[in-house]
Amino acid sequence: MAEGALWSMYKMNRDITARRRIHTGLFLVALMLGSGCLGAIDEITEKPEPSVVTADVQIEGSPTTANDLIVANAVISEGTGPYIVNWRLDGVLVQTSSSMTYDAGFLSVGTHTIEAEITDSMGVTGVSAVIFTLLEPNRAPTISLELPIEGIAGVPVAWSVDASDPDGDDLVVEVDFSDGITQRDLSGQHIWGEPGIYTVRVSATDTSGFLANAQETIRIEYADAPSLTVSTNPSPQGRIHLNLAGELTITTSTEDPLGPVSVSIDWGDGSMVEPAFTEESHQYAEEGVFVVRVIATGSTGITTERVFHVEVVSVADDLEAAQLQEELEEEAEEQLDTEVEEELDNDGDGTVDDVTEAQQDPDYDWQSDFDPDGDGYYDDDQEVDDWVATDEESVRDEVGDEEETDAIPNDPLMIETSVVNEDEGPSDAELGPNPADNEADAEIVNPVFNDAWGDVSDDSLQEQTYSRSISQVTATWWNDTFWEDWDNDGVPETLCHTTVGVFWFDSDGIPGPERIILVRTKHCSHDRDGDGHDDLFFTRFRGLDMVDQNSDGIPERHDVLTRVVWTWDNGTYEDVNIDLFVHARTDADQDGNLERR
């Protein structure tokens, strides 16, 4: 609105000035006619009226702040050249020349007017002006990152970002955790799954595109597995034996300095307890061998496992066993009575037939053996013992020979049959030589492999195995962060990061890689003016590429590249110096004459 009002006032003043010039010209003509000056001329020669000078003043670019360079250009659409231009800045004459360009440089904050008064070769003058306003220049945001220097893999690590903008602009903050994950937030927690050194980078961007950066390094260490102690009842002796009527009880004890531990028990029969208490019991419903797994999971997700094997058998309980025993005894007793009766009393008269016959046998004195008292009934076993000679001082061994009890040694080492004699040695068969390697291969190894693989030659097998194992690109990286003393005051103040990488590739089946690439980078940043922002940066890249196509250990081609970059940046200006060194040589036929150097 202010610029429009100023421009309207300027045009009105210019129109008034033009009308005054016309009025003045008419007055002079009338004066000359009245005085007779014009009448003295017999013939008036018509001269062409002066042309109009029309121009437009334009500002290069789109300057908006006091940090923008102001350059004005006068674009003439009507007039007769050459021209003389009077340039005025805010009403002050600053330049008179034939140039249609005026370099105003950097102006202060506020509203400014640049005017061009143009006079052509006919003496006609035209005026054009431009009015513009410059604002305060945008200032870059500031940002800082708070991050611990160490962490544990799998454990959340807290971080926070402090970002602000001196102009009050809205900021977009982005955090890069160097593990493939980025996040737009000011605080939170992050979990690194693998050990290593990670550089966390944060950036803040305002609405004008101004950027601020910060970074911190964290070392992630391995997490130890939780400790797990397990006891069982019954106790395992190689394998836990259990019957269907019994229960298996497991008692656990865990410890993890990083946090709580969760225990789960897989009983092996499809049932599981998760989470499990310190003591858990289980009864199996069927026979079989079951694998029991006790797993302790720490706060980092790392687990510790204990495995047991349980054999469950079906055994009758006491009540069932007693009933079965009673039934069997009754059946056996009944059967025995029947058989005895049938064998001894075939006629069923209640008298043992054989005894009756024996009584009638004059050659056998049955009464002295079975009825010494002559009462007609069998006497008790005490009488039977009278004709059985028993030697309580001797014992009958396994083979049926009698030995005195005192003759059997108590110490098994004193038994001669179990002790090796002095002159006793291995048999001839035991001392026989082992079969030769080729004989063993022919008789044992080769038949087994031929049955499993078929007829496979050693060469093809080795080539396939070697090709599968090395036909790939392998890479190894090392990272390090350290401080350097650039100002030689004895105190390291410059943070540097270095990365070393090695790549090698082998695919021809011959030991020795065909290509090796070595990469080494170093990056340092330093705050020279002490304003809290790094303004001096150093980056060095070194690369070596070697190619040995025939795998003879002598590379046919090797290339070396070194690139050093120094950058100074104060937020407005940037100065970059690059030093590049390249060395390349190729001797493809290895004749000593380089094809490329």
Tell me what you see in this structure.
This protein has 597 residues and is α+β, with helices and mostly antiparallel strands. The protein folds into five domains: 2-38 and 49-134, Immunoglobulin-like; 142-221, Immunoglobulin-like (Sandwich); 227-313, Immunoglobulin-like; 318-344; 471-586. Helices cover 18% and strands 39% of the residues. It has seven helices and 31 strands. The chain has helices at residues 2-34, 318-344, 353-359, 366-370, 381-385, 437-453, 458-470, and strands at 54-59, 70-78, 84-89, 92-97, 101-105, 110-119, 125-134, 142-146, 150-152, 157-164, 172-176, 182-183, 187-190, 196-205, 211-221, 227-233, 240-243, 248-255, 262-266, 272-273, 279-282, 288-297, 303-313, 394-396, 402-404, 472-484, 494-506, 515-526, 536-547, 557-569, 574-586. The strands form eight sheets. The chain has a six-stranded antiparallel β-sheet. A five-stranded mixed β-sheet has the order 9-15-14-11-12, with no helix packed on it. A hairpin with a 5-residue loop joins strand 6 (110-119) and strand 7. The two termini are 69 Å apart.
SSE blueprint and pairings:
Elements: H1 2-34, E1 54-59, E2 70-78, E3 84-89, E4 92-97, E5 101-105, E6 110-119, E7 125-134, E8 142-146, E9 150-152, E10 157-164, E11 172-176, E12 182-183, E13 187-190, E14 196-205, E15 211-221, E16 227-233, E17 240-243, E18 248-255, E19 262-266, E20 272-273, E21 279-282, E22 288-297, E23 303-313, H2 318-344, H3 353-359, H4 366-370, H5 381-385, E24 394-396, E25 402-404, H6 437-453, H7 458-470, E26 472-484, E27 494-506, E28 515-526, E29 536-547, E30 557-569, E31 574-586
Parallel strand pairs: 9-15, 17-23
Antiparallel strand pairs: 1-2, 2-5, 3-4, 3-6, 6-7, 8-10, 10-13, 11-12, 11-14, 14-15, 16-18, 18-21, 19-20, 19-22, 22-23, 24-25, 26-27, 27-28, 28-29, 29-30, 30-31
